[in-house]
Amino acid sequence: xxxxxxxxxxxxxxxxxxxxxxxxxxxxxxxxxxxxxxxxxxxxxxxxxxxxxxxxxxxxxxxxxxxxxxxxxxxxxxxxxxxxxxxxxxxxxxxxxxxxxxxxxxxxxxxxxxxxxxxxxxxxxxxxxxxxxxxxxxxxxxxxxxxxxx
Amino acid sequence: xxxxxxxxxxxxxxxxxxxxxxxxxxxxxxxxxxxxxxxxxxxxxxxxxxxxxxxxxxxxxxxxxxxxxxxxxxxxxxxxxxxxxxxxxxxxxxxxxxxxxxxxxxxxxxxxxxxxxxxxxxxxxxxxxxxxxxxxxxxxxxxxxxxxxxxxxxxxxxxxxxxxxxxxxxxxxxxxxxxxxxxxxxxxxxxxxxxxxxxxxxxxxxxxxxxxxxxxxxx
Lengths: 150, 219
Description:
- The structure holds two protein chains of two kinds.
- By secondary structure, chain A is mostly helical.
- Chain A has helices at about 5-20, 80-85, 90.
- The radius of gyration of chain A is 25 Å and the shape is elongated.
- The model of chain A has no long low-confidence stretch (mean pLDDT about 80).
- Chain B is an all-alpha fold.
- In chain B, about 55% of the residues lie in helices and about 0% in strands.
- The longest helix of chain B has 25 residues, at about 20-45.
- The radius of gyration of chain B is 26 Å and the shape is elongated.
- The chains are: A mainly alpha, B mainly alpha.
- The interface of A and B includes residues 66, 93, 106 and 114 of A.
């Protein structure tokens, strides 16, 4: 048998083995693709109001409390009930960043800008679960690092 | 006038045909039957089935209630419409039911018979309820959620902070902070909430003002 042909056979064999082995997806679990996996149990949202450190500079801070049932739509923004800059003296919540009051053109507005209106696009509530897939990400010093001078 | 006088005489004259026993006992039993029927009929207008019999309620406010904790929750206790919107005390309930006859008018003339009409009326309707709950110190909330039975240690830190100060000092009542827990909130223009929750400024004018302003010079 010529070496080239042998190599081709070996490749085919390896490929066949690979397809035959059950493919386990860490996110999906061992459930076959045609069956519906059992949804994981609902956990309890972290609700301790302890501010968590950022993992890297400019990370949108995470939400340390439950937000289920919060209405954020064209009529009303529940988050701003406490976090609007005018409300924080009463609510003692973290005020929304100044940057969120700037329009796209850098104009200062008296209310949150449209592009920052939907809080949960960047800020998310947390649940105490183990990550499903491994991750070697290492954050930097975050806020402790001084901003670069330009 | 003569007719009225004749009936008045009949009314005040002692009975000739019926015994005193029959009249007292009959009156007593008749009273029980009337009272029972009256209250049963009134209770029937307090059921979830009755309230959601109209599409105005079923398709708008009831549909919104369904995803909230007052409709379905882990322990299976449900607050139905009347639990929050009708006082439990009999005299207050009667007063509220009389007020609610206006709603029959609204139903007949289709004041909110489309979703658009409802949306336009929504702020006003909500304000009525907020004002009512503010005036009676959130009585319908407190029918179940009693301040004396609250265990602050089982509450989140910020709930404790709020309840042990503003609620405890009676400076605020439930509805001041807990608006929109059972239904979606309408847009509240600044200063139009009867109590002090927001006046949310929803950034609709943002883009227009940005468009109207001359574009910032490129750097």
